[in-house]
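STRUCTURE REQUEST FORM
Protein name: Helix-turn-helix transcriptional regulator
Source organism: Flavobacterium soyangense
Requested output: structure tokens
Priority: standard
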Amino acid sequence: MENEFKQIASLIGDPTRATIMWTLLDGKAFTATELAIVADTSAQNISMHLTKLIQAGLLSVESQGRHKYYKFSRKEIAYAIEAMASLLPQSTDKHDLHKASNSAIRQCRTCYDHLAGKVGVAITDGLLHQKIIVDNDNVLEVSLKGQKWFSELGIDIEELKKKRRSFLRPCLDWSERRHHIAGSLATALLDKMLLADWIRRTKNSRAIIVTSKGQKEFYKYFKLDLE
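Status: completed
Returned output:
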């Protein structure tokens, strides 16, 4: 296991491959050409790096017409990459701290398929405070009150539990250094917010914008004041 861990760490530690993994946190599949542009490298070089990541089981590739699209082989890899960012040292410069705290990506973003950042953590706090979800020794569960709450929101918990993936789990937020929720329930909640226009995606970024409607709904459902 130690040797396998060293191999994975070495793969991710390469600057080009680290850029690939970070880019894929957007939650979309990318072509080799798109990844080469982001990593500022040649098509031949990006192909070599992608092959190594696929062979290690970190990425998967899907062909569609003339194009091949690359993505994480499973969602847990995305969560691990996001959590690794929490190892970054916190800046001690007050100007940097102020600038970082106001950046869009730290305020609200997608963490692959769920909501993260300051808003994502605050939503999780709101759900815990209202006992919609409960924390049993870092194991998150939906309470009886929560089952009714999600049902009224139009989210079918029983259907989500049937999916072949984690239903509800804590995910370490790299910018807040605290947990937000992940899993199929968090994905369903993100989809609900996007569909209802509480939040909107931004072009070429993981940053998420909370709409004026969303500000009202966030207060109504999560007791979260974003104004």
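Reviewer notes: The chain is about 50% helix and 20% strand. The radius of gyration is 19 Å.
Form closed.
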